[in-house]
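Suppose a colleague, Dr. K., hands you the sequence of a protein chain of 458 amino acids and asks what its three-dimensional shape might be. Before reaching for any lab equipment, you can write down a predicted structure in token form. Begin with the sequence itself:
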Amino acid sequence: MSTPSHQTPKERAEHGQSLRAQCPRSAHGDWSPAADRPDPIVLIEEQNADRLEWLIPVRRARMSASPFAFFRGSARIMAADLAATPVTGITVQCCGDAHLANFGFFASPERQLVFDINDFDETLAGPWEWDVKRLAASFTIAGRHNGLDKDDCRRVTERAVRAYRKAMADFAEMRTVDIWYALLHEDQFVETADDHGREDEAEEITEEAKSKDSRQALDKLAVEVDGEYRIKSEPPLLVPFREIRDELPRKNIRKLIDDSFEAYRETVPDDCKALLKRFRTVDAALKVVGVGSVGTRCVILLLEGRDRKDPLFLQIKQASRSVLEEFLPPSPYENHGQRVVEGQRLMQTVSDIFLGWNSGTDDKDYYWRQLRDWKGSADVEALKERDLRYLARLCGWTLARAHARSGDPIAIAGYLGKGKTFDRALAEFAKRYADQNERNFEAFTEKIRRGCLSIAEE
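The predicted structure, expressed as tokens, is then:
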């Protein structure tokens, strides 16, 4: 990555400004699909080769719900489109899927509610511009879906980019360690909401997030059987291991769960190892999550501490090659679960203490995290124009902070400058890409209508 050198701040800022000659800021708005652009539907369907076959129709159904839902599941398509776009050459740890629905709340180890990026399946070192363009496009696409007119969509999108640009300018002036400590916590979230007249809604979101923990998950996801909790059976979205023996390696299921847990435990810090030794595994199930992730192997693991009233749910997600790796140098980590975990730790100020990884007996990589730890996010499809403006400010700042940790904030700020040139260019890019996303969505749903692609109701 393009981490800061021992040049002076002035030299780094001048370097960023000099990059405008080879990559004009206005050039970012000039996008159209390449003549040899791969078929977007083929790109999506190729991803199904390594997924659970019986869940592929569920994935298609979720993606066919709206252009925004399709966009959420089409990170690979956008990565292919971004590969030919102009870049400055300054690299950062990219999220790889920085759309607005991948930002939200979780609990810090200090038990503060913090707002940050919360999905890192595609994380990889790459151009900072790619994340900002995916974020900008997501606001335009969400705005259209929620009924905003073209002018409001543009204003909301520009606001997200402006928030990124101004935050990066602030980080360029900060001490390095202060950047590392910067985070957006609950009080700041509510204060910012008050500026937009949304304080009541913000407090409702934060209180709901705090209610989502392992005890709440136990009530929702498990039932008591013969004095012990068991994960419910609600196929196809929640299927306990005891019901899917044909999908698992032919060995004792209990041993499979325990062996995976032990392998994972070896990847966490010693203090977390000590904590995990206080829990025993109780049950496990496949659980469908998200949109783009549907069909990949995602498992929830129920553990018990001191007694049945002391549950802990961990989530184990399959980690495959990042979609960015088709166009960028590969990850330095052999295990893609470790790629996800290390990328998350680098981009977030604080992270889940239970992050870890393992290689499964099925020759696939996995990463682990707590299932619910004060998890909260906005219902994107219910957001009005002023809600999106508020969220744009939060997401732009948060993405800039994540990039400033791994890249050179002074050089990026020098390139972006103080004017609105880049903001306007990205809003134009987002408009053009939203148009293309709608064409992609129409092609996808047309294949479903013609019976070429099967879907399944949930």
